[in-house]
Amino acid sequence: MKLAFIGGGTMGEAIAAGAIANKVAAAGDIAVCDVALARREHLSSRYGVSVTESASEAASGADLIVLAVKPQEFASAAGGLKGSLTSGQTVMSIMAGVRIETIAEVTGHAAIVRAMPNTPATIGEGMTVWTATAAVAGPARESVRLLLSVLGEEAAVDDEKYIDMATAVSGSGPAYVFLLIEALVDAAVEIGLEREMATRMVLQTVKGSARYAEDSGAEPAALREQVTSPGGTTEAALRELEDAGVRAAFARAVGAAYERAKELGG
C-alpha cells in the first residue's frame, strides 16, 4: 500500500509509524507533506519516508491520502490536491469536525473516508470510528480498515452522524478518564498518601479495571455489583458519587460534547 500524509504531526506520525511497524506499508512507499522543516527532517531521519512541502507531490501515486492537519489549516494545506487526484485514490480525513461534504469540495474528490481516532491511538491502543462514501468500496475499504487497525480498535459506521457521536464518546473520552485519574489521585493525597504512590495506584487500578471488564465480557453494572458488598467501603463511596449526581454529570458532558461536535461541523 502506498500512503501519503498531508500533515506530519503527532497523529500522522503515529499512523505512519504503525503502518511501517506492522508492515502495512514500507517506508519507501510513504510520502509526507508538512510545511514545517523540523517535522520533515524528523520524519525523514527517523522513519526513512520521503518528505515534501507539496501536497500534490506527496499524493502522486498514493493509494490512500491521509489528511492529518488541523481543521483550520485544511483548506490551505489540501487545496493543491484539487484536480490532481485520480479515481483509484482514496482520501481519508482524521480531522475533527470537518464533514465529508467539505472534504469533497476542497479536494474535488468523491472517494472520501472520515475517521475519528483518539489520543491512545498514538500508542496503538486507540478507538477509531470511521465512515466512507459509496465511492470507497471493496479493496479500498479493506485498505482503510487495515491501516486504521494499526492504531488499535476500529469500527465502521454507515452514517456520518455517528462520527459526531464518536467524537463525544471515544474522541473526547480520554479526557474524561484523565479527569477521573486526576480526581482520584487528589482524593488519595487528601487522605494522606504520597502523590507518587497515589498516581501508581490509580493508574494501575484504571488500567486493570478496563482490562478486567474487557476480558470478563460482563456488563459494567454487574462488575460494579461484584465489588460492592452491603455495608462496605465501596457501597459508602458509590453512595456519595450517586448522591453527587456523577452519572447525570457524565450524561450532560457527553451531550455537550456531541452538540459542540455538530456545531463545529456546520
Verbal overview:
With 266 residues, the chain is α/β, with parallel strands linked by helices. The protein folds into two domains: 3-158, NAD(P)-binding Rossmann-like Domain (Rossmann fold), CATH 3.40.50; 173-265, ProC C-terminal domain-like fold. It is built from twelve helices and eight strands. The protein has helices at 10-21, 37-47, 55-59, 74-78, 100-107, 139-149, 161-171, 173-190, 195-216, 220-227, 233-243, 246-265; strands at residues 3-6, 30-33, 50-52, 64-67, 90-93, 112-116, 126-132, 152-156. The mean pLDDT is 95.
Give a summary of the structure in a few sentences.
This protein is of the alpha/beta class and 266 residues long.
Q: Indicate the CATH class of the largest domain.
A: Alpha Beta
Helical content stands at 40-55%
Shape: elongated
The CATH architecture category of the largest domain equals: 3-Layer(aba) Sandwich
Structural class: alpha/beta
Total domain modules: 2
CATH superfamily of the largest domain: NAD(P)-binding Rossmann-like Domain
Adjacency order of strands in the biggest sheet: 3-2-1-4-5-6-7-8
- Provide the succession of SSEs: EHEHEHEHEHEEHEHHHHHH
Radius of gyration: 21 Å
Main β-sheet description = 8 strands, mixed
The separation of the N and C termini measures: 33 Å
Integer average pLDDT? 95
Structure summary, number of beta strands? 8
The fraction of residues assigned to DSSP E strands is 5-15%
Number of helices: 12
The CATH topology of the largest domain corresponds to Rossmann fold
Residue windows where pLDDT falls under 50 for at least 5 positions? none
